Amino acid sequence: MSRQILRAGEWFVRSGIQESNGGVARYYRTDEHRNVPVSTEITGYALSGFAYLHSVTGEQRYLDAASRAASFLAAAQEPFSGCIPFEMDGRDIAYFFDSGIIVRGLLCAWRALGDRQYLASAASIGQSMIRGGFDSGSDFHPVINFDAMHPERRDPSRWSRDSGCYQLKAAMAWWDLAEATGDHTYRAAYERVLDYSLRGWTTFLPGHAERPRVMDRLHAFLYFLEGLLPRANELRCTLALCEGIRRTAAYLRDIAPEFARSDVFAQLLRVRLYADSVGALPLDREAAAFEAAQLAEFQSTEAEPRLDGGYWFGRTRGKWLPYMNPVSTAFAMQALELWRQHEEGAAMAPLHLLI
User: Fold this and answer.
1) Interval 318-332: pLDDT, tens
2) What dotted CATH number matches 3-353?
């Protein structure tokens, strides 16, 4: 394994980004020297990250961290609706996208730890996504009030509060639940969101006149490409993957000198590697090497444990933005480790380990 993933793993367990209750802060503000509040979604991402770190290193401390995160999420679940709250602030709202990320994290915990409590919790959240997510037509609701089980007002200016092709990443939770439980109603739900996403993805980019906002949209668009991977060998998905990777790479190279996000480099590199591994799109090695080199620059070399080994969220004209980000770190460490393994001829990690 590489030194970069060892350092990233150290950051996850030593930085304080995971708090004593098992929850994980959304990010660390380097200019204010504090964690922002714990997020259920980010805890779900970190849980998948801990499971991936254990799969690579075999170290017990990552299983311990995964257990704490999974227990936190299971305890946060609303017992009557099965929903998982957006934040631990008392508001009765659940995000479709966040719920999918949390389900996939809990399934990682179940596979790694063998505790069926986590499978049961994941299945319950997955069922709540089906009950609350779909309307009577072809659309689905991005945010619901789980006390009354009715949809919240949408906000097209914020992608997580609107429906769109990017929600396909969350729908991967249903694909994973179908494999874990044998219940094919989950698979049918994934297919429904897949059909919806394929109808509208071509208009998503650039989607905004401001170039930094286009970079933000690349992050969301890559969730769509990741969500295609379970069906990557189906022709319509293969075509969308190929064209989507091409478009993303072009925008990324154009905008990155002004504003670059580490997660966009990481997501694009991972999608390239997985698409190649299933035979959907041969790897453009030169482009992948460029993205890996750019991504590696985002890893902090500061001596302070709060920073060392983590990955910066982004930079503007060469200046780091003051966010040490657990999702950026999880995506980046995985992308660079998958790239290293590819170069050594190793098999790709199973898709359920995609953070």
Assistant:
1) 899 999 999 999 999
2) 1.50.10.10
